[in-house]
């Protein structure tokens, strides 16, 4: 018989989040959250809970084929990043670009554009964009917290907006299931497209980075981080503990790495990703769009990072940065640097399973469902999905929970399904964006060599502003039914809040 823990079902994720904030020990905090969840399931027996922490939750996280594939991909990401950094490619690229990028505003905008360009995956975005642009932002004394915020703001928001990414394919699949059960004959792909103007959080999140860079002012903990970086030259705080170690670059005197040591592997990486997406998606038997939407993201990314890392290693040998033995050591060393990140991801998956086992998401749904009136359905869905994603650290899991709730309710209330679909997606991304136990948040800290808790604390006020603008947009959607009028309302609230908050902090930093 299933046990109803009620409000206590919030205990595992909340414990992990609060402990992480207080102790700055992410691994210990996640483990404690999993242990508490396992203890609750084991009839509050802490010994059995400890055993089940390893036997059930951690073992299941490792035993899942998708999770295992992601861990392998993450190892290869470490190898690729090490070859780009230690092979001198990123350093040469940053040095060449630094002659053109001379201001902090330009540094933030070009990093933002880089994040938009790597739109195909939330997991590859931070570990590609972070190492490439970090030398540039470092030279301009832009804090690592700001770099991680810029990277994180495009890592999930961009692929969640596009139907041709793995995110889009997953969401279209969820919509298709609910459309079939509701007897809706519309093509699910077009339902996703029609919901795009209502995706206020992703649009606001992306636009906010541009706005902050142009205005040149920050607020909250981010302003303190930027003042520290500019005035004291400290890119990270005194007590910061980055998940991934700093990479120091010392080029041999006879070496000659160029920008092509980075550009060629990155271009090959992108070509390989799209090529593998097409191949795994059944191209040419399927059309290009259909193949891109149904391809295997994890296989595509794994193979692309593997081949690109080998090419980067070869180019570093050719440029006399390494001999073969040194290149191999650097390649393996890149994998070794990802150990802490791998442990965090395993425990993040485990605590997601523990939260599901104790009924965290079910409780959140039960206490919010009575607010789902025709005029407030979209806001209610967004808020409930946000709390769920924040507590569990998973946007995809949130999509799977709330899409079967939001679409039938919208149909039953004779309300438009498009903003209901968008509310689920926005809530999942917003909660995930704010959560310290989210894998994309962790990866952004890794890619930018930033203290994870500092990244979460400095990013949270910005995400909250975009979240408030999103609520305003969904209120307008419930009242007017107009996607573009609702989007204008959301963006107007966003701009108004940012102008108000930045006007209170005085002069620009720098």
What labels describe this entry?
510 residues, mainly alpha
Model description:
The chain folds into two domains: 58 residues, no CATH class; 435 residues, no CATH class. Helix content is 75%, strand content 0%. The chain is built from 25 helices and no strands. Helix 4 runs parallel beside helix 7, helix 10 runs parallel beside helix 21 and helix 21 packs antiparallel against helix 22. The longest helix has 29 residues. The chain is globular and about 70 Å long. The mean pLDDT is 81.
Summary, kept brief:
It contains 25 helices and no strands. It has 510 residues and is mainly alpha-helical.
User: Biggest β-sheet: count, sense, barrel?
Assistant: none
Query: What is the SS-derived class?
Result: mainly alpha
User: Order of SSEs, N→C?
Assistant: HHHHHHHHHHHHHHHHHHHHHHHHH
How many domains? The number is 2
Radius of gyration: 23 Å
Low-confidence stretches: none
From the spread of the alpha carbons, the general shape counts as globular
Could you tell me how far the N terminus lies from the C terminus, measured between alpha carbons in angstroms? 62 Å
Query: Given the structure, what is the number of helices?
Result: 25
The number of strands is 0
User: Per DSSP, what share of the residues sits in E-state strands of 2 or more residues?
Assistant: under 5%
User: What is the helical fraction, as a range of percent?
Assistant: over 70%
What's the mean pLDDT score?
81
């Amino acid at each position: 018989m299933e046990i109803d823990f009620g409000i206590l079902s919030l205990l595992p994720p909340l414990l992990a989040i609060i402990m992480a904030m207080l102790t700055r020990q992410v691994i210990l905090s996640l483990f404690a959250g999993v242990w508490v969840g396992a203890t609750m399931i084991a009839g509050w027996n802490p010994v059995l809970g400890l055993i089940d922490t390893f036997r059930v939750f951690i073992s299941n996280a490792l035993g899942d084929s998708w999770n295992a594939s992601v861990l392998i991909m993450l190892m290869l990401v470490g190898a690729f990043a090490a070859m780009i950094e230690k092979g001198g490619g990123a350093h040469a690229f940053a040095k060449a670009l630094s002659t053109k990028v001379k201001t902090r505003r330009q540094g933030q905008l070009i990093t933002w554009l880089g994040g938009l360009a790597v739109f195909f995956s939330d997991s590859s975005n931070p570990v590609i964009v972070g190492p490439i642009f970090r030398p540039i932002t470092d030279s301009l004394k832009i804090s690592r917290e700001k770099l991680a915020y810029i990277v994180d703001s495009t890592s999930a928001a961009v692929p969640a907006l596009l139907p041709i990414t793995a995110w889009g394919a997953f969401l279209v699949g969820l919509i298709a299931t609910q459309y079939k059960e509701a007897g809706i004959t519309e093509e699910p792909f077009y339902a996703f497209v029609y919901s795009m103007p209502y995706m206020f959080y992703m649009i606001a999140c992306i636009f906010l980075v541009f706005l902050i860079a142009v205005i040149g002012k920050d607020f909250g903990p981010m302003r303190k981080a930027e003042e520290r970086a500019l005035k004291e030259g400290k890119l990270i705080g005194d007590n910061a503990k980055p998940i991934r170690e700093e990479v120091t670059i010392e080029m041999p005197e006879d070496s000659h790495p160029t920008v092509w040591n980075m550009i060629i592997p990155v271009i090959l990486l992108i070509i390989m990703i799209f090529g593998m997406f097409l191949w795994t998606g059944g191209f040419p038997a399927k059309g290009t769009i259909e193949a891109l939407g149904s391809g295997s993201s994890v296989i595509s990314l794994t193979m692309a990072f593997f081949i690109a890392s080998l090419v980067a290693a070869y180019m570093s040998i050719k440029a006399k940065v390494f001999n073969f033995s040194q290149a191999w050591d650097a390649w393996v060393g890149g994998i070794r640097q990802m150990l802490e990140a791998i442990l965090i991801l395993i425990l993040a998956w485990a605590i997601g399973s523990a939260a599901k086992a104790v009924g965290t998401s079910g409780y959140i749904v039960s206490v919010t469902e009575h607010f789902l009136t025709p005029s407030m359905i979209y806001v209610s869905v967004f808020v409930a999905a946000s709390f769920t994603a924040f507590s569990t650290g998973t946007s995809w899991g949130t999509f799977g929970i709330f899409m079967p709730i939001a679409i039938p309710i919208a149909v039953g209330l004779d309300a438009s399904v498009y903003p209901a679909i968008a509310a689920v997606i926005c809530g999942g991304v917003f909660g995930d964006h704010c959560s310290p136990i989210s894998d994309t948040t962790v990866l952004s800290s890794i890619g930018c060599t930033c203290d994870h808790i500092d990244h979460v604390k400095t990013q949270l006020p910005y995400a909250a502003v975009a979240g408030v603008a999103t609520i305003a947009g969904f209120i307008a959607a419930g009242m007017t039914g107009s996607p573009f009028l609702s989007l204008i309302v959301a963006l107007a609230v966003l701009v108004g809040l940012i102008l108000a908050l930045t006007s209170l902090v005085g002069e620009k930093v720098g």
